Amino acid sequence: IWPSMRANLSKHSCCFSDLPHPKSALEFPNCKEIHQYLTNYAQHFKLNELINYNSQITSAEFNGNCWRIGIKENSKEIKFQEYKNLIVASGFFSKGVLPDVKGLDDFNGEIIHSSQVSDFERFRDKNVAIWGNGFSGIELASEIAHVANRVTHLIRRPSWILPRYIYDYSTNQTLPIDILFYRRNGNQTPPISREKAYQA
Fold first, then answer.
1. pTM (predicted TM-score)
2. Degrees to nearest 5, angle at CA 147 with 164 and 101
3. For residue 67, what are the contacts with CB-CB under 8 A and spacing of at least 6?
C-alpha cells in the first residue's frame, strides 16, 4: 500500500452497511482512512475482544458437529477450541507472484512486485516498465509517471478506464461512478452516450 493509494469505490459503497464513513472522509478514501474506518468498526462493535492476535493455527479438524482448532498464542503451548464454522482467510494476495517470463533472469535492472511499492522516490528519474493492467498496475503507472523519466505500461489486452465521477443527466449532478452503477430502480433515465459522459 502506497501513501496516496485510494479505494476504487466511493465511501458510500466501500463500507459495511451498519456503519458509514464519517462525513469528513474523502469521497474516495485513502489507505489511512480505510485503516481508521476498520479500526473504528472493530472498536464500535467490540470485535477486538473476540480476536486472538499473535496466534498461529496449528490444526483444524471437523468432527461431524464442529471444528476443533489448535491455536498457539505468542509461541506458547497449543490449546484447542471448538467452533461451529471455519473461514479460511489466509490472504492469497499477501505474497506477490512474478510471472515466469523467458529472459527475465538476464534483466540487469530492479524487478519488484506491486505489493513491494511503498513510495515513489525509488523511481525518480528512472525508466520504468509496469507489467499488468489490474487496479494496482493502472494506478501505479499514473502515480509513477509523476516522478519517473519514462513509464512504459505493458498489458495483454486493453481495458476500459472509467472516470471516478460521471455526470448524471437525470439528477443534473456529478456523482461517484459506483453510485450510478448500484442503483436499484430500473426506471431510471437510460444510460447516456459515451460522448456525453466524457464531455461532463
1. 0.72
2. 85
3. 60, 61, 82, 83, 84, 85, 86
